[in-house]
Design goal:
By secondary structure, the protein is α+β, with helices and mostly antiparallel strands. It is built from seven helices and 15 strands. Helices cover about 30% and strands about 25% of the residues. Helix 2 runs antiparallel to helix 3 and helix 4 crosses helix 7. Bound molecules: 2,5-anhydro-1,6-di-O-phosphono-D-glucitol and manganese (II) ion (2 copies).
Length: about 325
């Protein structure tokens, strides 16, 4: 019989290699897994019950909050609190940080950033959506109540990052800084099972992912790069393939496995792009780098950026090493003339 490694077994085995580990981090990830399974259950039956559609309110960024957005947000917050390991959460769905200032959680070592449901415009049409998360050690001393400053840390300080993709199968992909591993949910036993050990992304890719509807507003370097992708050149396997789902998690996951580049650039109307540094770009950048890929804002490494606020947006370029090298050349050359 094939030996199956569940997420929980894997986490415990990994923890055994860390001499000072107290099990706190393992406990936190265990609860992330539970929240993911709960959200998965609701995503799966979204067409059956009255959970589809809008919740009737806007979130703090003026976007329609979908019912599943609200469910996912509350479920993750509940599990994080129950873990007793996390003292505060920053979520796309909440204006301010959520502080756990009582019980065990107050002394939790970790803070958590999340996009509880990514790609929500795809819920109603049965297209893949996800959850993105990031874990840091708190900066404030144990015994104090966590504060905003705990969240203003560079992405390179992440202890772990991951995403869940609710797709044709449901997967949890995460890194704790020691490679990237993917787990597929086996619904018959209700466990995430190691299915994609030590994921490495191809150095070359042939997929480019960008919302080309915004073409006119793109920086000239991006426009020229798109044209480069579309040119025919046998040696470099061009023209490349264009794929864009509109769920960062799903677009990134495909490119991670197959090789490709995802771009959400700055535009004339949105000089900082659309995606959020803390709970979209940083976790995805950490995973990308751990898999051998590259992530930048067009110039600077994402993981070196010091956030100024929890909902800060940033232009985002992420993908295979050689594609990222090429676009960086284009940006440098064309944006300087
Ligand atoms: P969210 O659903 O969490 O607000 O995120 C949506 C994001 C991201 O998943 C995706 O890559 C991007 O928005 C798509 O934006 P456009 O529709 O502007 O292309
Ligand atoms: Mn999102
Ligand atoms: Mn979201």
């Amino acid at each position: 019989m094939n030996k199956v490694t569940t997420l929980n077994q894997f986490i415990i085995e990994q923890q055994a290699h860390v001499p000072q580990a107290t099990g706190g981090f393992s406990g936190l990830l265990h609860h992330v897994g539970i929240a993911a399974k709960k959200v998965n259950r609701e995503v799966n039956k979204a067409g059956l019950v009255d959970i589809l559609g809008r919740a009737g309110v806007e979130n703090i960024q003026g976007e329609d909050q979908q019912k599943l957005d609200v469910y996912a947000n509350e479920t993750f917050i509940g599990e994080l609190k129950a873990s007793g390991e996390c003292c505060a959460v920053a979520s796309e769905e909440n204006q301010d940080i959520i502080v756990f200032d009582e019980g065990l959680s107050r002394d939790g070592k970790y803070i958590f950033c999340m996009d509880p449901l990514d790609g929500s415009s795809n819920i109603d049409v049965n297209v893949s959506i996800g959850t993105i998360f990031s874990v840091y050690r708190r900066k404030s001393p144990l015994g104090e109540v966590a504060k905003l400053d705990d969240f203003l840390q560079k992405g390179c300080k992440q202890v772990a990052a991951g995403y869940v993709i609710y797709g044709s199968s449901t997967m949890l992909v995460y890194t704790a800084g020691n490679g990237v591993n993917g787990f597929t949910l086996d619904p018959s036993i209700g466990e995430f099972c190691l299915s994609h050990p030590d994921i490495k992304t191809p150095e070359d890719g042939t997929i480019y992912s960008i919302n080309e509807g915004n073409y006119e507003k793109f920086p000239v370097g991006v426009k020229k790069y798109i044209k480069y992708c579309q040119e025919t050149d046998k040696k470099t396997d061009r023209p490349y393939t264009s794929r864009y789902i509109g769920s960062l998690v799903a677009d990134f996951h495909r490119n991670l496995l197959k090789g490709g580049i995802f771009i959400y650039p700055e535009t004339k109307t949105h000089p900082n792009g659309k995606l959020r540094l803390l709970y979209e770009c940083n976790p995805i950048a950490f995973i990308a780098e751990q898999a051998g890929g590259v992530a930048s804002d067009g110039e600077r490494r994402i993981l070196e950026l010091m956030p100024e606020s929890i909902h800060q947006r940033i232009p985002f370029y992420v993908g295979s090493k050689n594609m990222m090298r090429k676009i960086t050349e284009f940006l440098k050359f064309f944006n300087n003339i």
